[in-house]
Amino acid sequence: MKNNYSHPIEVSIVMPCLNEEETIGACVQKAFKAIQENGIAGEVIVADNGSIDKSVELAREEGAKVVLQREKGYGCAYQLGISEAKGKYIIIGDSDDTYNFLDIMKFVRPLREGYEFVNGSRIRGEIHNGAMPFLHRYLGNPTLSFILSIFFKSSFSDVYCGMKAFTKNAYEKIKPVSCGMEYALELIIRASGLNLKRTEVPVDLYLRKGESKLRTFRDGWRSLRFMLLYCPNYLFFVPGGLFFLTGFAGMCLLLNGPFIFLHHKFEFHAMIFSSMLVLSGFQLINLGFFAKTYALMEGFLTKSSFFFKFYKIFNLEKGILLGGLLIALGILIVLSIVKTWIFLGSIGQERKELFAFTIILIGIQVIFSSFLISLIGMKNKQR
């Protein structure tokens, strides 16, 4: 069979490939059979990622268009393959014969009905014996899917399913940049962030032929890391805000002397710990602003209404003014302590000193953080 170009292409089926000679031929055959049986104007594209076996020759023999991606990575292969696709709808799936390409109508129907992004779910379908390792099925995949649903409101039960579909217009909005296995997560994260019209369909998972390229713990950590980096709110702002508010409350309660709680007496050492929480929390919040600003400028994250409003109000001069006021307040407290010491001698003002020094340090951070945020944001202001 060959790609059908007699009519405008409606569906492009794209498969990444790396040494899949045992299965690539069967996958391409099934894809073309589904196209023919359902009367679809379609094409099959195999994005080879450096195979050293007969994968490329076998794919071409079956009529697929083969593109060669020299840059290594699952995501890189898909990026090149999809860039060559002519279809209105794109269906992606692994070329290891774990997914049945005869079932492409499960994805085509929702796309024709107006959905922009369709995710496959192995959890809702049938997982054949031995097709998914125990840890992946009952721990890794459910956990990562749950975390992603909390962070990004994805509402999908199986975020790492290798079979998905989307419109070409939706893909051009998503603009994925990941070259590794995180590519699958990025598609869902950005589709959710863009609020594309999404749905999920059940797919069956079959036993893989050949060696799996997944590494359970390494890829699990890479996935979690990617989600955290894509969500500065949970990585920086939530813990930072918790540290800062807890520490500030502790410092205020201990400012004028010991504080008793549940029959326990908290002294100056507790105030030192509170100061550490305040400074650590404020630093995390700062890092969150840096990360969010950079991610927005580079297009890794969709636009945030909060940050849009923040940058309409914030500028370097206001940051310097706020930092200067905090430093001035801290210095005034220090001067009042010095005045008391001059006239009355040493009377134990350690708590006020610590409070003042903490305020001064925050003021210094505000000033220099304002310079850095302004520097990062210059690219956007020049557009």
Reconstruct the topology from this structure.
Elements: E1 11-17, H1 24-37, E2 42-48, H2 55-61, E3 65-68, H3 74-83, E4 89-92, H4 105-112, E5 117-121, H5 134-152, E6 164-167, H6 168-174, H7 183-193, E7 198-202, H8 216-229, H9 232-254, E8 259-261, E9 264-266, H10 268-298, H11 305-313, H12 316-344, H13 350-381
Parallel strand pairs: 1-2, 1-4, 2-3, 5-7
Antiparallel strand pairs: 4-6, 5-6, 8-9
Helix pairs in contact: 5-8, 9-10, 10-13, 12-13
Description:
- The chain is α/β, with parallel strands linked by helices and 383 residues long.
- The protein has 2 domains: 11-229, Spore Coat Polysaccharide Biosynthesis Protein SpsA, Chain A (Alpha-Beta Complex); 232-381, no CATH class.
- 56% of the residues lie in helices and 11% in strands.
- It has 13 helices and 9 strands.
- It has a 7-stranded mixed sheet with strand order 3-2-1-4-6-5-7, with helices on both faces. A two-stranded antiparallel sheet has the order 8-9.
- Strand 8 and strand 9 (264-266) form a beta hairpin.
- Helix 5 (134-152) packs parallel to helix 8, helix 10 runs parallel beside helix 13 and helix 12 (316-344) runs antiparallel to helix 13.
- The two termini are 49 Å apart.
- The relative contact order is 0.09.
- The model has no long low-confidence stretch (mean pLDDT 86).
What features would you highlight for this structure?
383 residues; alpha/beta; Spore Coat Polysaccharide Biosynthesis Protein SpsA, Chain A; 2 domains; 7-stranded mixed beta sheet; two-stranded antiparallel sheet; 13 helices
